[in-house]
Amino acid sequence: MKRLWRFFPALPALMLSGCTVDLLQPAGPIGEGNRDMMVLEWAVMMCVVLPVIIATLVFAWKYRASNAKAEYLRNWSHSNKIEVFIWGVPILIILVLSGFNYWSTHYYDPYKPISKEMQVKVGAPNAKPLHVEVISLDWKWLFIYPDLGIATINELDVPTKTPLDFRITSDSVMTSFFIPQLGSQIYSMAGMETQLHLMASRPGNFQGEAAQYTGPGFSDMRFRTIAMPQEQFDAWVQNVRSGGNPLVVKEALDAQTYQKYHVPPAAPHDAAPKPAPVVYFSSVQAGLFENVVAKYNVGMTHDHHGKDMDEKAMDMHSESHAAAPSNTGM
């Protein structure tokens, strides 16, 4: 039994051996930048942590009670060198981290479109962006492809090496839109539109999630982000439009059918809601995203330049001045 205790320090590593750290396994230039900044800041912080740990062990050993040869300065009270060191090093680290954070905050600004430099890096300098409108609901995600006339629930299909321009809002409480392996997260809020620009540099099946608690169905508010080559993506779009995919519903996504999918998944009383299934729509009513934003702003929405535009919000059975209804349990 005593021999088994020697393997105790390795227990955490064995318990986590099947886990993956999405933030450290990026699949796009924004994700790579986020990872590099996180590792760089961790390395800078280790410049303090490791010396302190080593010094603690050295001092504990050198000045142990049994070491009669250790120097003992009975009247010592102050050292300018030590004061400069213990204050100067933290100040220097703060300045270095501040510089890194200032640069990365502006370079990886979520509202900033994917740069030409990033497109060249992945080998697609002339790729046109794919526009996706995202609406967070209780407890699922609705993705509208306005240029393609299709939509999905709880599955985001995108082509690789193509800039992804997201417009994000909520028809419920505030939450956070996050695809860890692709990059930055950003909030989704009712009556407001946020933007996010990402790109997948390789094919893959990546997890997306709501990164903020929103009620009993929060743990299942996840979606799959499937990145595929452009040719495969085009075939998928055609398959959805034609209704050939078994996940395509017969009805179009419009003002009436939206109400059906807007409500939380049915669940027994006092039971956690069931996860929403993946659904494809072969056609979508134009302006759905804008009207979801407008219904919380007395029928007003904004263009991409921030100017107010008059727009008649469709009847979604929600009061403009009221907060989005949601059984958050808070």
UniProtKB/TrEMBL annotation:
Cite the Pfam families for this sequence: COX2, COX_ARM
On whether Transcription is a keyword of this UniProt record, the answer is: no
Q: Which residues form the Cytochrome oxidase subunit II transmembrane region profile domain?
A: 15-112
Segments traversing the membrane: 42-63, 84-103
- List the InterPro entries hit by this protein, alphabetically: CcO_II, CcO_II-like_C, COX_ARM, Cupredoxin, CuRO_UO_II, Cyt_c_oxidase_su2_TM_dom, Cyt_c_oxidase_su2_TM_sf, Cyt_o_ubiquinol_oxidase_su2
Keywords, ordered alphabetically: Cell membrane, Electron transport, Lipoprotein, Membrane, Oxidoreductase, Palmitate, Respiratory chain, Signal, Transmembrane, Transmembrane helix, Transport
Q: Where is the Cytochrome oxidase subunit II copper A binding domain?
A: 127-239
Q: State the superkingdom.
A: Bacteria
Give membrane topology per the record: Multi-pass membrane protein
Subcellular compartments: Cell membrane
Q: Which NCBIfam families match?
A: CyoA
Similarity-based family: Belongs to the cytochrome c oxidase subunit 2 family.
Name the UniProt record assigns to this protein: Ubiquinol oxidase subunit 2
Q: Which organism is it from?
A: Bombella dulcis
